[in-house]
Design brief:
The structure holds two protein chains of two kinds. By secondary structure, chain A is mostly helical. In chain A, about 75% of the residues lie in helices and about 0% in strands. Chain A has two domains: about 120 residues; about 140 residues. Classes of the chains: A mainly alpha, B alpha+beta. Chains A and B meet through helix 6 and helix 7 of A and helix 2, strand 7, strand 10, strand 16 and helix 9 of B.
Amino acid sequence: MSMDTRIMGLVTALYMAAFFLLVIYSIARGRIWKNIGLTVAVGGFALHTIGLGMRWLASYRLGIGHAPLSNLYESLVFFAWAIVLIGLGIARRRTRSMTAVYSMPAAALLMAYASFAPGIDSTIQPLIPALKSNWLAIHVMTCFLGYAAFVVGSLLGIGYLMKRKQDSSDAAPIGNMAYQCIAIGFILFTFGILTGAVWAYAAWGRYWGWDPKETWALITWLAYAATLHVRLRDGGINPKVVGMALFGLACILFTYFGVNYLQGLHSYF
Amino acid sequence: MQSTFFSLKTAVVLLLSIAGMSILGTVVSGLDGGMQAQGTGISGIWRVLDVLHLADTYHSPWFIGLACLLGLNLTGCMYRRVRKITQKRIPAFPAHMKAEEFILTDKAPEEFLETCTGILRKRYRVKKTSGTSEGWLLYAERQRLRQAGTFLLHASVLIILSGVALGALGFDATLEIPEHATTDRVYLKDGMAKPLDFQIRCDTFDVDYYTNGMPKEFTTRLSFMRANRIIRQASLRVNHPVVFEGMHIYQASYRTDGSALIKVVDGKRLIWVRAEQGQIIPLNTALRARVMRVEQDLMHLGPAVQLAVEAINGAHTVWILRDIERMREHMPGILERIPAFNPSPVPPYTFALASVETRFSTGLAVNSDPGAPVAAMGGILLMTGTLLIFLTPAQRIWIRIGPLGGSQRLSFVHTRNGMQTEPDRELYQALKSLSKG
C-alpha cells in the first residue's frame, strides 16, 4: 500500500470522527465539541490535500505525471475532497459546523467506497491516449467541484427541512446556504459541461454525442436549472425547491455511479 | 393563455420534460445495446418504441418538439422581461416584507424625496413616482449586470439550439485505411459512402506502449492528395485532430491485420499458403484449417499463428510457432507438456510457419459541423450570463413617504438577490439622518 493510500485511510477516519463530534455538538450544544469537531475536520482536509499532492508528485516520479483524476479511485478521492472544500469553505464562521456536519459523512462514505469497493484499483496508472489532454484537469475538476457544491447544497436542503419542522430560527440560514451552494454548483457545473464539450470537439469531432455520461450530466444540469427557477418563482427556498434539489442529487448519483454500467466513452470514471 | 405559456412555471415543466425524455433516451440506448449483445433483435418493446418514433429518442419529433417549445418559451419570457425592464411603471412597495420606518423632520415630502433621490443616485438607478394615495414612492435598483446576465443566458440557450439545428447540415462519418493505402470516400452512420473530392493516404500508423503494455499513443501519418499529387501531409494523434478543407479528421480506432506464410505437409506433398486472419485453408473434403490469429510475437516466443483444424467431429486449436524446432532443441518434451504447440494436431497433416506479416489499419472519424461556431458562441454567452447572474448583486430599494398624524413617515425595504436585507451602513445612516430622533 502506497503512502498516499495510507493517508487516505486516515482521512476517512478523521472525517467520520469529525461527523460524530459535530453530531454530539448539535445534540449537547457544548462549544468544546464544536471546536474539536471542526479542528478534526480541517485537519482531515489538510491531510487529504497533502495525500492528493503526494499522489500527483508520485505520478511524476513514475515518469507518467498527471493530475490524480484519471480513474474511478482518483475521482472518488477528489470528489470527497471537493465536498469538504465546499462544505467548509462556503460557510461563515457561525454556520461552519452546520455545513461540516452535512459534508463530512458524504466525504467519508466516498472515501470508504474508494478504499473498500471491489474492483477499484488504487495504483497510479499511466494515462490512456484519450485522456492525454490539458482539458482533463480543467474539465474533471470543474465538474467534480460542481457536483460537490450540488451535493452539499442538496444535503443542506434536507437540513433545512429538518430545522423547519422544529420551527427553529436556524432554518433560514441553512436554506440560504443551500441556495448558495446550488448557485455555485450551477456556475461550476455549467463550466464543466462547456469545457467537456470543447474537449469532446477536439478529441471526437463533436461537442455533444449523447454519450450516457454526457446525457446524465445534462439531466443533472436541467434538474438544478429547474430548482433555481422554482426558487425564483416562489421567492425563496421551500420544500418544493428542496425536493427538486434532491431529484438533482439522485441524478448526480446516477451520473457518477449508475452510468458506468452503461456502455459509453466515459467508462474510465 | 399567452401569459401561461410564457411563464416560469412552463419553463420548469419544459426543463423537466426534456430531462425525462433524456432519461428515456439513455434507457432506450441501453436497451439497444443489450439486445444487440444478446442477439435478441427487435422485440415487442422495440416495436412499440419504433411506432412511437422513440427508437432514436434524441432525434425523435417528441424531443425536437420539446426543444422547440423551450425555445419559444424562452423567447416569450425574454420579450416579457425586456418589456418589464424598459417600461416606466415601477414595482409596487413589497407589502409582505417588514419595512423599516422613521418619523421625519417637519419638511415637505417633496424635499425628502429630493434628498433621498440624491442619496440613492450615487449607486442606484432611480425610478421615481409621483404621489399616490398612500404617499410618495421612490424606487431604485442596481441590477443592470444581473439583468444583462439573465438576458444573455437565455439568449445563449436559443443560440446553442440554433447551432445544433445548423449541425444537421453537416455530417458524421468514419473511414478505415490500411497502411500505405489510399481512399477517396468516407462512410456515413447509415453505411452510405460519401465521396470526397480529394484522396487520403495512410502513410504509417504507429502504436507506442508504456512499459506495462498499456497503449501510450496512436499516431497516423496522413497524406492528402489530389490527382495523385500530395497537397498536404499531417500527423494525427488522439486529441490532436487535423482540419482539411473544412473537415475535422480525428484518430478514432485502429485494427491489426495479419497474414502468415504457412507450410502444410500431408506426408506425400508439401504446399505453401499465404493466409490472412480469418482465411480458410482447405486440406481435404472433410478437413480444413481456419487462421484464427496472427501474432508478430506470442508471449516472447516469436511469430505465431493460431489455427483451428476443423473436422466433422470437432476442431483442434493449435499455435504454430515459427521457432518450434529451436525450442524443441532447448526444451525437450515441450510438445508433450504443451499439446497446443503440436504442429501435427491431425495426422498426417503437419504445419510449419515460415513468416508473419502484420499491417495496421487506422480508423478515422471525419466530421463537418457548420453549427459548431454558433454553438461555441452560445457556450461563451451561457458562461458569461451564468457568471453575471450569480456573481453580480441585484439590489432594490423602495422608499415610501406618507403622512402619519401631523408628521411624515419614511418606510423603506431593501432586498438583495430577492431576499430582504439591511442596506449598507452609509445608505442606512443617510436615511436615518432625515429622521427626527
